[in-house]
Design goal:
mainly alpha; 61% helix
Length: 154
């Protein structure tokens, strides 16, 4: 980017904040940060420096309040990770059960087809498609002459 263009946009601050501060909407309280691990690591660095300098304050927030928030967040993250691991096991168990159930359903459809017949209402009730309800195969129409096939490919 040229220096004149850079100056036209107000230098380096223009790219950090693309709109004027006076027009800024209220800050949302909903957390948008999904980088949990990075945020926790950054908070640990902040806690280390702040612990060595406890006289520092951000507004009315002191180190003790920050440390309480940091500890609570760390605990929630560890609890979440434990539950996610438990959930992975439950999902695997669920998927195994679904596969087993699907196998039994397929096998029962075969039994119903053999016992009741392929056009029976019982076979249709268990989810089978009766032969009479199936679509017949359709063949593609072949071109009448070479000129049609050349026109279609062009």
């Amino acid at each position: 980017m040229r220096a004149s263009t850079w100056a036209m946009f107000g230098g380096s601050n223009a790219f950090k904040e693309p709109y004027a501060t006076a027009y800024r909407k209220e800050v949302s309280t909903v957390a948008k940060n999904k980088r949990v691990k990075e945020t926790l690591q950054d908070a640990e660095k902040v806690a280390t420096v702040w612990k060595e300098n406890p006289e520092l304050a951000m507004g009315n927030l002191k180190y003790k309040e920050f440390d309480a928030i940091y500890t609570a967040t760390d605990g929630l993250i560890k609890d979440t990770l434990g539950r996610e691991a438990e959930l992975v096991g439950l999902k695997k168990q669920r998927d195994d059960q679904v596969r087993q159930l699907q196998d039994l359903v397929t096998r029962f459809r075969s039994v119903a087809r053999a016992h009741f017949g392929q056009n029976s209402k019982e076979y249709a009730q268990v989810g089978g498609t009766p032969t009479s309800a199936r679509k017949s195969r359709t063949h593609k129409a072949e071109p009448d002459s070479e000129t049609e096939s050349v026109q279609k490919s062009a």
